[in-house]
Amino acid sequence: MAAQTLDSPAKADPSATLMFRESAEGSAAVARFLAGNAAAIEAVVARLRAHPPAAVVTCARGSSDHAATYAKYMIETHLGIPTASAALSVSSIFAAAVVPGQRLCLAISQSGRSPDLLAAVAAQREAGALVVALVNDVESPLAEMAHTVLPLLAGPERSVAATKSYIASLAGIAALVAAWSDNAALRAGFAALPDQLEQAFAADWRAALPLLRGDRSLFVIGRGYGLAIAQEAALKLKETCGLHAEAFSAAEVRHGPMTIVGRDFPILAFATSDDAGDGVRAMVAQFAERGAATMLADAAGGGALPALRALPALEPILMIQSFYRFANALSLARGLDPDLPPHLRKVTSTR
Length: 351
Hints:
Shape: globular
Number of strands: 9
Oligomer: single chain
Distance between the termini: 28 Å
Strand content: 5-15%
Radius of gyration: 19 Å
Strand order of the largest sheet: 2-1-3-4-5
Order of helices and strands: HHEHEHEHEHEHHHHEHEEHEH
């Protein structure tokens, strides 16, 4: 595989990469988000309560769309409002009209500049949706288009692989849902996130390095709140490590994909400490019986990869923070530069 590599990848210091330094800032980014957006969140929640939306439409690409998966589970489980991801090309290529209605359009983006994202958000706004943007660049076209902007406040992100902006997006979604649902436990839980994220970044996942150092494919498994980080981890393994990684729900993988998993096939799994996590744990046990090389991050304490226990809805944020440090180290171990994946740019200009 052609890729940009470091001069001496075998000797490279993992802490010297932009990916390492920026992902390490996840805790500080979340603290800034919570402090800087408290009033704006309460204001938009008051508007949402006064005019309850019939549905939520998310607009996002890449890592931000994985955050949108998290938003779907958070909103539907805590508020019961149907939430779906917009197919951006419906607006950008097909120019199809959107049926008017009382909706929330939740737009999530690091740059706020992708043309197809902007087209979809504009269509939703024209159809009467309230547009709330979680965006890192407050001077972007997306920020100008939104009714309410919740700045991610992650700071400049120079590595191509988004890390701290993704963590800030997840925390922002949790903060919005906590206020909107007036869930005291969730409010208290996300307030503790900055300190917990520092602990999560210190977690040692080196035990998984030998299993993925070679040129292989793997499955990444999650369920419920954890599906979003399975999607994100699979993307990061592709773009920073050159691995063919596919993300599946622990329920969905029981269908056709099951036939691929045999002896030594790698499985990376994220299990929350709730019933959804039970499904992941059961699936991992079944794969292990076949001789698969399983690597489990388990907030309930049963996995080889350490994971912090918190509210199940927040545990994925902590696990993905641990994963980012691991992915950075794995990229270097495979002779790659995690900051400069081949053929990729920071802003994707998809029409």
